């Protein structure tokens, strides 16, 4: 994170020249005007129309969008769920005829690229999406460290990017092309601290965080700051590195400090391992975490060790609002499982993008950027989405409790 800053800056300089070149080629990328993109593919395009210069209003155009995410690797459910959410949004729009702008309908084509959850892959895949696949906008990534590596590329090519779920504040600070449809970690840290201090009435908390993940470091800081402000005491702060096999030395140190709660701002694979090892050490306190826990694999891998623990998230699938229930039903029918928060955010990010393209009436980078920036009160599955001046969304968080292997709504925290 911090140590990445100089590298990021030099990457930005390198991209300047390429960005200039890319912008020239991207100028022809508005599928409304690009001849290659509007090649008739549907039987509705009459053959005799080829003779007359202006395209008939019924001829379908195409809009290509990109997604980069962890489709494999330790956080694979993040990328897969997000991709599924985006796919559902794409299918729904295409089934209704496509995006309507520039006097004709445009089918959406989705290109997805795998980052394996690795920041070092992000630059390559975002460059490929933009330069080879000619996407007009990019959705991704989930993990803040990967988004921080991919965002400078989209920024320099002048292609709008929406991260559905990266919560580290720095992600959208990369530049004016970078947006998110989720809340940020200063709020998420506050929500977790408030729940611990006021709902669980915890006085002493310990923290175990991933020192190499921007998300984890940031959320740790915000939780600690807010929990102390609320009168709590942080009795231990220990750091791990993603993928560690043996958490016993760290957990043993924490065990001696008499914490009533262990806050783990990490991702689900590590969290499940930590939970299993903590229970073996007879540590019975509730565990609390952030959205990084959100995966069906948390309960699959953590089993009983994770029961009765809590995490903050962007939505709870058991909430009875019509937006959520319709989405849950449709998603389940298509993918055979309950959508997690990532799926909901992927769906919302895609729909905000489609709405913006229609309002912009164009896929030109700067016009599209302006339209995304002026998104106000968009009704998403994860709540109402309004983009603020920092290109972030301000939304409530939910706290869920792991019960019977499933996250169950427990509380809602307003910003
Ligand atoms: N907020 C996490 C990050 O920034 C990613 C995440 C979001 C994971 C939502 C799960 C659910 O790294």
Number of domains: 2
Oligomeric grouping of the chains: single chain
The share of residues in helices is 40-55%
Q: Give helix and strand order, one letter per element, not per position.
A: HEHEEHEHEHEHEHEHEHEHEHHHEEEE
Tell me the span between the first and last alpha carbons. 26 Å
User: What structural class should be given to the helix and strand makeup?
Assistant: alpha/beta
Summarize the structure.
By secondary structure, the protein is of the alpha/beta class. The protein has 13 helices and 15 strands. The N terminus is likely disordered.
Describe the overall structure.
With 415 residues, the chain is an alpha/beta fold. Helix content is 42%, strand content 19%. The chain folds into 2 domains: 12-183 and 320-395, Response regulator (Rossmann fold), CATH 3.40.50.2300; 186-313, 3-Layer(aba) Sandwich (Rossmann fold). It contains 13 helices and 15 strands. The longest helix has 22 residues, at 5-26. It is elongated, with a radius of gyration of 22 Å. The structure holds phenylalanine (PHE).
List keywords for this structure.
Rossmann fold, 6-stranded mixed β-sheet, 415 residues, 7-stranded mixed β-sheet, disordered N terminus, 19% strand, binds phenylalanine, alpha/beta, elongated
Layout of helices and strands, plus pairs?
Elements (H helix, E strand, L loop, with lengths): L4 H22 L34 E9 L6 H20 L3 E3 L2 E11 L4 H13 L6 E3 L3 H14 L3 E3 L6 H4 L4 E3 L4 H15 L4 E7 L3 H16 L3 E8 L7 H8 L5 E3 L4 H13 L6 E3 L6 H7 L7 E4 L8 H14 L5 H20 L4 H9 L4 E3 L2 E3 L11 E7 L2 E8 L2
Parallel strand pairs: 1-3, 1-4, 4-5, 5-6, 7-8, 7-9, 9-10, 10-11
Antiparallel strand pairs: 2-3, 11-14, 12-13, 14-15
Helix pairs in contact: 1-4, 2-12, 3-4, 6-7, 9-10, 12-13
The site of phenylalanine (PHE) has 14 residues, from helix 12.
């Amino acid at each position: 994170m911090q140590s990445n800053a100089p590298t990021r800056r030099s990457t930005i300089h390198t991209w300047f020249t390429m960005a200039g070149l890319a912008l020239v080629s991207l100028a022809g990328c508005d599928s409304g005007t690009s001849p290659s993109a509007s090649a008739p593919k549907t039987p509705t395009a009459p053959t005799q129309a080829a003779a007359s210069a202006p395209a008939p209003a019924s001829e379908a155009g195409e809009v290509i969008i990109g997604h980069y995410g962890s489709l494999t690797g330790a956080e694979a459910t993040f990328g897969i769920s997000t991709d599924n959410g985006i796919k559902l949004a794409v299918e729904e729009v295409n089934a209704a005829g496509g995006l309507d702008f520039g006097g004709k309908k445009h089918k959406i084509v989705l290109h997805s690229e795998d980052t394996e959850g690795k920041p070092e892959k992000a630059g390559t895949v975002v460059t490929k999406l933009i330069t080879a696949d000619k996407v007009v906008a990019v959705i991704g990534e989930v993990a803040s460290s990967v988004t921080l590596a991919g965002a400078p590329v989209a920024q320099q090519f002048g292609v709008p990017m929406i991260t559905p779920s990266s919560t580290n504040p720095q992600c959208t600070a990369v530049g004016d092309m970078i947006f998110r449809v989720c809340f940020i970690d200063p709020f998420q840290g506050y929500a977790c601290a408030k729940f611990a201090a006021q709902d669980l009435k915890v006085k002493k908390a310990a923290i175990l965080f991933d020192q190499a993940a921007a998300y984890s470091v940031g959320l740790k800081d915000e939780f600690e700051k807010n929990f102390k402000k609320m009168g709590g005491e942080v009795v231990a702060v220990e750091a791990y590195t993603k993928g560690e096999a043996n958490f016993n030395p760290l957990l043993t140190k924490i065990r001696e400090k008499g914490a009533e709660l262990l806050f783990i701002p990490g991702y689900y694979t590590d969290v499940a391992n930590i939970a299993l090892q903590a229970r073996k050490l007879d540590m019975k306190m509730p565990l609390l975490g952030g959205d990084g826990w959100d995966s069906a694999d948390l309960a699959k891998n953590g089993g009983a060790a994770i029961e009765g623990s809590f995490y903050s998230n962007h939505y709870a699938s058991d909430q009875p609002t019509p937006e959520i229930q319709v989405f849950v039903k449709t998603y389940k029918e298509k993918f055979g499982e309950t959508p997690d928060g990532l799926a909901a955010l992927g769906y919302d990010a895609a729909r905000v993008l489609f709405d913006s393209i229609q309002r912009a009436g164009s896929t030109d980078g700067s016009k599209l950027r302006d339209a995304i920036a002026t998104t106000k009160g968009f009704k998403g599955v994860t709540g109402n989405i309004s983009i603020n001046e920092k290109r972030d969304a301000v939304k409530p968080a939910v706290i869920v409790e792991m019960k019977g292997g499933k996250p169950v709504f427990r509380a809602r925290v307003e910003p």
